[in-house]
Amino acid sequence: MNNVKKVSPEAELDPRSRDLVFQMRGVSKSFPTPEGPLRLVLDDVNLDIQQGEFVCLLGPSGCGKTTVMNLLARFITPTSGTLLVHGEPLVAPNPKHVTIFQEHGLFPWRTVIDNVAFGVQAQGASKSDAREKAIKYLELVGLQEVATLFPHQLSGGMRQRVAIARALAVEPEVIFMDEPFSALDAFTRYRLQDEMLRIWQDQKTTIIFVTHDIDEAVYLGQKVVVMAPNPGRIEMVLPMNIARPCERTDSQFLYYRREIFKAFQLVHEWAPEYAI
Amino acid sequence: MWTINLRAQLDGWLAFLLVLLLWTGVAGFYTPEQLPSPLDVLKAFPELWEADMLGKHILVSMGRFLTAYGLAVVIGIPLGLWMGWVTRARQALDPIIQFLRPISPIAWFPLAVLWFGIGNAPAVFIIFLAAFFPVVVTTVSAVRQVNPLYLKVAYDFGAGPLMVFRQVVLPAAFPQMMNGLHIAVGTAWIHLVAGEMLGAQSGLGYFIVDSRNFLRTDWIIAGMIMVGAIGLIINRLMRTAERWIYRQWGQEAGSHE
Ligand SMILES: Nc1ncnc2c1ncn2[C@@H]1O[C@H](COP(=O)(O)OP(=O)(O)O)[C@@H](O)[C@H]1O
Ligand SMILES: [Mg+2]
């Protein structure tokens, strides 16, 4: 795979290509269906993601958000089009690009601290170094007190914070989050959103955050990528000019919220079954 | 909670008492050689103990049981892990396992005598077979049922195959493997008596057969009671261990009792 150099002409023309973490140019993805023929799940996706950016992928379920994320994480490869990572095509998954899943995926047989240490150990650190890192990042998410408990002894919100600490502990370049808070109650979700913003401002990590919650996308994203289904595609990319953290009642917040609602209204004319 | 528990226990004891009474009543119609009363059987215990006829057989049986069960675990777990993790190994070996599994371990007895002669070996072989298949089969399914999300997370952090196997697959599969070990203890203990009845010159199974030669029906029943009591104790120990592991892993206790 590595010696295959397939640089598309558009990418070479872009002088910024090396400052961008990700560049998608005309990316499409099809999956085989049980009946046989391929189904187009993503059509002609173009997206740039800069270093340190907080990008939200927003859209109704089934519009291909997870597929975009899986492409960026190189879990899957595009059917056509070009995906560049730091200007390089066809690179293998990078252990410094980590994913936080909706169902957190903590190991039930490990204590909180050993869960957080896992990723660091996986990347070659000794057990004691890994634990040191783990403590540092548990403190960052405010969970040093529960370091010796097991995941099943924690609330859903605390588990997701452990998962966040586990990702942060490897000091990643990019964090992918796939609807990480959608299983949590509203109050816990708001708290974790604030925490995520604080961590992002603190660590300067590039964050790609998948959500189907418009408020969440506006509250978190520097850039909101509005997606639509059938076939999955990017409807528009909205840069948010809001100081973070903002109030959910700010006029600016409400303005962008309305813009996105309008964007989806636009979608409604084409596909009324996806009403909000 | 407490009162319900107490009620359940009380009912258990009451039913037990009723069975004893029934047994005593029925025994009145038969000679002690045909059916001794519970009291006759109770009196057999001190007699057997003083003559050191029961204790030594129990020790021999326990030795065979531990040897055979230990062998089944030491061979069955690695084999099951290998078959669970490596698809080709499973595809190659699963048909053989599935073919041999339904053959009762007792059916192996003639071959076991031909191969190993009489003495310890055939009995150990039969107990081994009785434990081996449940251990292998549950280990394979334990590995295959490891939550794929755990593997995804581990690979995502860049963990190598050895770390994934040792630090993720093994612990994730462990509770269900433990359940298999628990089932295997039961089947192995059941086949211990059968194995010893057929060829051995010692052990609880032999003692039961030998007592019949003396027409000591009370000893036969005393031997059976020992088999039941030891089986119950072993089962309880395994269940406690299993529950502890499930609790530690934050899961619901296994359905197998
Ligand atoms: N591995 C796959 N095989 C077949 N179809 C898939 C696969 N992954 C996703 N899809 C399909 O692609 C569409 C988009 O899925 P997904 O990216 O998960 O959407 P979202 O995350 O926005 O809900 C869905 O219709 C889904 O069924
Ligand atoms: Mg999804």
UniProtKB/TrEMBL annotation, chain A:
A family per Pfam = ABC_tran
- The answer to keyword Nucleotide-binding applying to this record is yes
Stored InterPro entries: AAA+_ATPase, ABC_transporter-like_ATP-bd, ABC_transporter-like_CS, ABC_transporter_ATP-bind, P-loop_NTPase
User: Which PANTHER family does this entry report, sorted A to Z?
Assistant: ALIPHATIC SULFONATES IMPORT ATP-BINDING PROTEIN SSUB, TAURINE IMPORT ATP-BINDING PROTEIN-RELATED
- Domain annotation ABC transporter: ranges: 22-254
What domain of life is recorded for the organism?
Bacteria
Q: Does the keyword Disulfide bond apply?
A: no
Q: What is this protein called?
A: NitT/TauT family transport system ATP-binding protein
Q: Which organism is it from?
A: Heliophilum fasciatum
Automatic annotation (TrEMBL), chain B:
Q: Which UniProt keywords apply?
A: Cell membrane, Membrane, Transmembrane, Transmembrane helix, Transport
What Gene3D superfamilies does the record point to? MetI-like (1.10.3720.10)
Q: Which InterPro entries match?
A: MetI-like, MetI-like_sf
The record places domain ABC transmembrane type-1 at: 58-238
Q: Which Pfam families match?
A: BPD_transp_1
Query: Could you state one GO biological process linked to this protein?
Result: alkanesulfonate transmembrane transport
Q: What is its main location?
A: membrane
Q: Is Transmembrane helix one of the keywords UniProt gives this record? A: yes
Q: How does the UniProt record describe the way this protein sits in the membrane?
A: Multi-pass membrane protein
Q: Where in the cell is it found?
A: Cell membrane
Q: Does the keyword Lipid metabolism apply?
A: no
Superkingdom of this protein's organism: Bacteria
Q: Where are the transmembrane segments?
A: 12-30, 66-87, 99-118, 124-143, 180-199, 219-238
**Gene Ontology annotations for the cellular component aspect, listed alphabetically:** plasma membrane
The UniProt entry, under PANTHER family, shows:
ABC TRANSPORTER PERMEASE PROTEIN MJ0413-RELATED, ALKANE SULFONATE ABC TRANSPORTER-RELATED, MEMBRANE SUBUNIT
Q: Which family does it belong to?
A: Belongs to the binding-protein-dependent transport system permease family.
Protein name, entry field: NitT/TauT family transport system permease protein
What organism does the UniProt record list as the source? Heliophilum fasciatum
